[in-house]
Amino acid sequence: MTNDLWNKWSDCHNAPDQQKRIASAKKSACTPVSLEQPSCTGTFKGSSGTHTTALDHCSCVDFNRRHLPCKHMYRLAMELGFFQSDFESNKSAIIEPTGKREKISETVKVIETLTDDQQLLLLETIRSVNTNNPTTCCKSTPDLDALIDARLIEPVSDIVQCLSKYKKTDLITLANSLGLTPEKKLLKADLIDYLATNARSKLEACTLAYTSVRPCSHIKYGKVRMYLHRKFDTDDYYDEYANFRSDRLLNTILPDDDVTELLIQYGYYKRQSQ
After folding, report:
1. Distance between CA 80 and CA 266 in Å, rounded?
2. Helix 104-111 and helix 258-265: axis angle, to 10°?
3. In degrees rounded to 5, what are phi and psi of residue 155?
4. What is the pLDDT of residues 154-204, one digit of tens each?
5. Beta pairing partners, 34
6. What per-residue string of b and e applies to 7-41 under the rule 16 or more CB within 10 Å gives b?
7. What are all long-range contacts of 195-202, with beta carbons under 8 Å and residues at least 24 apart?
8. Secondary structure of the chain in the HEC alphabet?
9. For residue range 215-238, what is the model confidence (pLDDT) as tens digits?
10. How far apart are the first and last CA of the chain?
């Protein structure tokens, strides 16, 4: 069974992107924190956090983004003898998670490389998560991919949440495409449970119409939300000729803080005259 878990990836190792991950896996910085030989699992650390790794999945962003072996999975396979390659080991070289959040100016620098549509999607995503709902589900689009690639949000492997966004007819179509024939009389919730139980590995290996995402630990989302809110939100009104107008809040007086200073810096707001 363990061989089968790793052998499922045999067709992808020669791809250029996979070769990069193999090279990273060989480095001492990818030394596992711990290995569990009986279960063929391991724990790894890096700047983005601590990751639990098996031969068929990993908790890191890279695997949840691409659904292909990440460097942690390659290193685990090397350590267990399932992937033959020389590698360096040195636990003192392991990178510890910083736990620090970057300055809002650094985050805004990344945000301003994105399109307006991508920035608005980020604002919408931030507004939909909170303490009670730490993740949200978005349509899988190039704009969402751009936010993930920019490390402004990160994907989460939550099959049930993704499937819950589908219509029942689309769930049946999806099941049929995976070679399953569920009973049509099943309720939507039961159909989701059926798919998650009988086709989880196949679902994790394919691109679904929706992606579950969550905030990244290094981002100060309160200030990001303020920045995007002040940049894009508008005041709507009718002028003296009864024409509809929509003016950005930037035409009003904004608080004198670092977020407003960044808006001035990027040319969205003029400094108030003394």
Report:
1. 51
2. 40
3. -75, 155
4. 998 889 999 999 999 999 999 999 999 998 899 999 999 999 999 988 888
5. 43
6. eebeeeeeeeebeebbebbeeebbbbeeeeeeebb
7. 195/159, 195/163, 195/171, 196/159, 196/160, 196/163, 199/175, 200/159, 201/56, 202/178
8. CHHHHHHCCCCCCCCHHHHHHHHHHCCHHHCCCEEECCCCEEEEEECCEEEEEECCCECCHHHHHHCCCCHHHHHHHHHHCCCCCCCCCCHHHCCCCCCCCCCHHHHHHHHCCCCHHHHHHHHHHHHCCCCCCCCEEEECCHHHHHHHHCCCEEEECCHHHHHCCCCHHHHHHHHHHCCCCCCCCCCHHHHHHHHHHHCHHHHHHCCCCEEEEEECCCCCHHHHHHHHHHHHCEEEEECCCCCEEEEEHHHCCCCCCHHHHHHHHCCCCCCCCC
9. 988 899 999 999 998 898 765 555
10. 73
